């Protein structure tokens, strides 16, 4: 964690009075372009966090399309963007801010999902974590922070270009490459086959088909270890859950999604924002049984069939199976009462 004066080379976050944020790297002699002029980096280097800086006037001609100036003739506001005098507060970005602003190759996980992975996966200081799917490094950074330098994170990324993006983002965040991070490229099964048995306390899978990776995952995870899978569609979620159950060596999976909504609070005007972050993905959490032991399962009623597709049934079979398929959640007695009440109200309407 960095403390003290802001230094050249590190990332900082500029926030104006409208809460608009700009994250940039401080460079000697550099500047950050805003909607209200330039922030000169030399004026920022050496300051402490929480300082307010003011933009300076930029060259107006730089705001206009030099190749086709006629295209900006009807856009007088573009020249006003060069005018300085706008204030920004300077802070080091939080990890969540850094993740959302960092250069990315693949789509990142949202902070709301990452936070749940850390909490539900019980990822703590000193843990050994295996991650599959580095993407742009958003999850990797949070895992590295959670386990600390006394822990160990091993990331397997299929695409070398994504691995480079993740490594660069982690290096920029820490100011150096984290020494407790092992980044490997290749497919999960091939790389995991070379890893020691029962070495990892936690496994995080962010990939297209995590259900196909459970054999190697079980080989390398310690008994009682937690596996977390992040998938985006209901079909992926269903396949992963059934694969965990069929394997017999994972506890009953828990499925969760998180919705995020921010609020406005200004005097007596307190209300939720009009927009929210809805569904982004499902988290599936399970734990590894010890070798030689089978996971305990809830016993289902023998007559209850949740596998047969309703489209494969005849009309008579479908009618007989309504209760088993849980398509009717009202008793016959209550249904008769509802019908009597409705009949009475209809009669009163007609009368």
Automatic annotation (TrEMBL):
Name the top EC class: transferase
One Pfam entry for this protein is GCD14
Amino-acid biosynthesis in keyword set: no
Q: What is its EC number?
A: 2.1.1.220
For this UniProt entry, the molecular function terms from Gene Ontology, in alphabetical order, are: tRNA (adenine(58)-N1)-methyltransferase activity
Q: Which InterPro entries match?
A: SAM-dependent_MTases_sf, TRM61_C, tRNA_MeTrfase_Gcd14
What is the reaction catalyzed? Answer: adenosine(58) in tRNA + S-adenosyl-L-methionine = N(1)-methyladenosine(58) in tRNA + S-adenosyl-L-homocysteine + H(+)
**Would you tell me the Gene Ontology cellular component terms?**
tRNA (m1A) methyltransferase complex
PANTHER family cross-referenced by the UniProt entry: TRNA (ADENINE(58)-N(1))-METHYLTRANSFERASE, TRNA (ADENINE(58)-N(1))-METHYLTRANSFERASE, MITOCHONDRIAL
Q: What is this protein called?
A: tRNA (adenine(58)-N(1))-methyltransferase TrmI
